[in-house]
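From: lab user (bench 3)
To: helpdesk
Subject: output format question, protein + adenosine-5'-diphosphate

Hello, I'm new to running complex predictions and I'm not sure whether the block I got back is the full result or only part of it. Here's what I submitted:
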Amino acid sequence: MKTVIYPGSFDPITNGHIDIIGRASKLCDKVIVAVLKNPSKTPMFTVEERVNIINKVIEPYENVFVDSFSGLLVDYAKKNGATGIIKGLRAVSDFEYELQMALMNQKLCPEIETIFLMASTKNSFLSSSLIKEVARFGGSIEGLVPESVLKAIYNKL
Ligand code: ADP
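Helpdesk reply: Thanks, we reran it on our side. This is the complete output you should expect:
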């Protein structure tokens, strides 16, 4: 049974994240989408709201689950019996930070492998922060997030 963790802020989840989740679910037996509790960020959605939003979105995938965590990712991964960490790479700009994180996690826990999936072309410009910014200024974000997320964003605004 190969379990992988897909960690992130998911504030909120976008079609880019969902693409990675769908692809990871085909590669592994179990995918845990892990929402990071990060007190240094001011999010649009609370961790509980993000978990609820993700729960609806992952309904079609029977081997995908959602949870939240704080502290070291490798500790969380070990606790859940995971052998891998999934990351999405959008552009070269993601690479440097992700490489640093992957090497640090490898140092902390060599038996957990970080696996990078390239963003699909149509999602490579998508980020949660850009979507929130466009929505705040009244721009259309249709087609970039699922219907339920669209509603959640408009409710917040
Ligand atoms: P962001 O970097 O937008 O704040 P998160 O921290 O929620 O997003 O990202 C969690 C993971 O999903 C990271 O590995 C990130 O690189 C990846 N990711 C984010 N947006 C996309 C996208 N549009 N396509 C593929 N992967 C993505």
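A quick orientation on your result: The chain is about 45% helix and 20% strand. Let us know if anything else is unclear.
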